[in-house]
C-alpha cells in the first residue's frame, strides 16, 4: 500500500473520504465501474476510484515542460476529437506519420487511466491486445504494464507531448499553466449527459443497466465519475486569460472547426499552412474517426458492446428522446444557478442558458 493510500490527505491538500457502504451498494445495482471502491476528495467533492489515491501525488508532482500540450475536459465533452486535432496538428499535418492510426491512448495518454487497472473488467480489456502491448514495450522498454502503464507512457512520449486528462486543475501540478500549454474544452451539459448515457450503455467497462433518468440524477447529485461538473469548468474559466490557457466550447468547434483550428494554430505556434489545416480537418472529421474506430476497435480500448464504434453522433443540441422536457428544464435551472456564480455578464454565464 502506498503512502498516499495510507494518508487521509493528498499532496494537493485534498482530504480523502471513502464513500459509504450504503452508497456503494446502491450504485452497484446499476453498474460495476465503482466496484473497487470510490472516494470523495474534499473540499471540492471530486468523485474518483479509491485506486486514484495510488497515483494522485505522482500526477500532482508530474514534471511538465514548455513543449507539452495538456488537454483538459470532462468526459464526453469532445476530448477525443480535440485530442486527435491537437496530435495531428503537432505530429501529422502532412498525414504521413506512420503512428497516425496507432492507438490514441499510446500517442496521447489519459494520464490518470491507471486508476482503472484495479477494475477487473478493465484489466481484462487489455489482455490479448497485442498491438497495445507491443507499442507499450517499444515506448517503455523494461517497464511493466502493472507498474503504471499510462504514467510511464506519458513520461516517455516524444516532444511535443500531447497529454489528456479529465481531472480538474486542482488535482494537477500548481505550476501547470506556467510550464505547459493547456487546452480546456467544455460542452453543453444537456448534450454531454445524453452522450454519457449512450457511452455507458456501449462500453463493457461500465456494465451500466440504469436508466437515463438515473444517470441524470447522478449527474445532478455529483455522483458520476470526475464530478462535480460546474466547479471543474469554473476552475478553467477563471484561468481563461492566462497566456498558456486556451478555453473553447465544443459548440464553437463543431460550428466552425477551421476558425478554431486557426486560433489553435496561433496558440500552439505550429504555423501550419492552409493545406496542412485542411489535412487535419480531413483526418479528424467525425466520419473518418468513426470509421477508424469501427475498423480498429483496439484504438479506443473501449470493448464496445455495439458495432457502431466509439463515436455515436457528435451533434449539437441533441434531439434525443431521452432528454425529456422535465429533465432538460432541471438542467437549465441548475445551469442558471451554477453559471450565475461565474459572473452575471460573463460569456459562460449566458452561453448554455440561452439554448433551446
Rg measurement, Å: 19 Å
How far apart are the termini? 50 Å
Q: Summarize the main sheet.
A: 4 strands, parallel
**Sheet with the most strands: spatial strand order:** 5-4-6-7
Structural class: alpha/beta
Provide the low-confidence segments as ranges.
1-6, 299-305, 307-311
Number of helices in the DSSP assignment: 18
- H-E order: HEHEEHEHHHHHEHEHHHEHHHHHH
Strand content: 5-15%
Describe it:
This protein is of the alpha/beta class and 356 residues long. It is built from 18 helices and 7 strands. The protein has helices spanning 3-6, 21-28, 52-60, 79-91, 104-107, 120-126, 130-139, 149-156, 176-179, 189-202, 212-220, 229-237, 250-255, 257-268, 274-283, 286-295, 325-340, 347-351; strands at 15-18, 38-42, 46-49, 69-72, 162-165, 181-186, 245-249. The strands form 2 sheets. It has a 4-stranded parallel β-sheet, sandwiched between helices. A hairpin with a 3-residue loop joins strand 2 and strand 3. Helix 10 crosses helix 11. The longest helix is centred in the C-terminal third of the chain and has 16 residues, at 325-340. It is globular, with a radius of gyration of 19 Å. Residues 1-6, 299-305 and 307-311 have low confidence and may be disordered.
Give descriptors for this structure:
356 residues, alpha/beta, four-stranded parallel β-sheet, three-stranded antiparallel β-sheet, 7 strands, disordered N terminus
Amino acid at each position: 500500500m502506498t503512502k498516499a493510500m495510507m494518508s487521509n490527505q493528498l499532496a494537493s491538500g485534498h482530504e480523502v473520504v471513502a464513500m459509504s457502504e450504503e452508497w456503494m451498494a446502491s450504485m452497484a445495482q446499476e453498474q460495476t465501474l465503482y466496484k473497487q471502491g470510490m472516494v470523495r476528495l474534499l473540499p471540492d467533492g471530486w468523485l474518483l476510484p479509491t485506486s486514484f489515491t495510488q497515483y494522485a501525488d505522482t500526477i500532482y508532482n508530474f514534471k511538465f515542460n514548455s513543449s507539452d500540450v495538456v488537454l483538459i475536459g470532462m468526459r464526453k465533452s469532445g476530448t477525443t476529437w480535440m485530442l486527435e486535432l491537437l496530435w495531428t496538428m503537432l505530429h501529422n499535418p502532412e498525414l504521413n506519420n506512420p503512428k497516425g492510426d496507432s492507438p490514441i491512448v499510446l500517442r496521447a495518454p489519459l494520464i490518470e487511466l491507471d486508476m482503472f487497472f484495479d477494475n477487473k473488467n478493465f484489466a481484462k480489456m487489455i489482455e490479448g491486445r497485442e498491438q497495445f502491448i507491443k507499442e507499450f514495450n517499444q515506448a517503455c522498454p523494461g517497464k511493466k504494464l502493472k507498474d503504471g502503464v499510462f504514467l510511464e507512457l506519458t513520461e516517455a512520449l516524444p516532444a511535443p507531448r500531447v497529454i489528456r486528462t479529465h481531472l480538474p486543475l486542482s488535482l494537477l501540478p500548481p505550476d501547470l499553466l506556467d510550464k505547459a500549454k493547456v487546452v480546456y474544452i467544455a460542452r453543453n451539459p444537456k448534450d454531454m449527459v445524453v452522450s454519457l448515457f449512450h457511452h455507458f450503455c456501449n462500453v463493457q467497462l461500465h456494465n451500466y443497466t440504469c436508466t437515463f433518468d438515473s444517470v441524470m440524477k447522478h449527474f445532478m447529485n455529483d455522483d458520476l465519475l470526475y464530478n462535480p461538473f460546474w466547479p471543474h469548468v469554473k476552475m478553467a474559466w477563471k484561468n481563461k486569460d492566462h497566456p498558456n490557457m486556451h478555453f473553447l466550447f465544443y459548440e464553437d468547434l463543431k460550428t466552425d472547426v477551421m476558425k478554431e483550428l486557426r486560433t489553435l494554430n496561433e496558440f500552439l505556434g505550429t504555423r501550419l499552412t492552409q493545406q496542412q489545416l485542411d489535412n487535419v480537418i480531413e483526418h479528424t472529421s467525425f466520419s473518418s474517426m468513426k470509421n477508424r474506430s469501427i475498423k480498429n476497435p483496439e484504438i479506443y480500448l473501449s470493448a464496445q458492446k455495439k458495432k457502431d464504434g466509439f463515436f455515436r453522433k457528435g451533434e449539437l443540441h441533441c434531439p434525443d428522446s431521452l432528454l425529456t422536457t422535465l429533465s432538460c428544464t432541471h438542467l437549465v435551472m441548475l445551469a442558471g444557478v451554477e453559471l450565475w456564480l461565474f459572473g452575471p455578464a460573463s460569456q459562460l454565464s449566458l452561453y448554455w442558458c440561452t439554448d433551446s
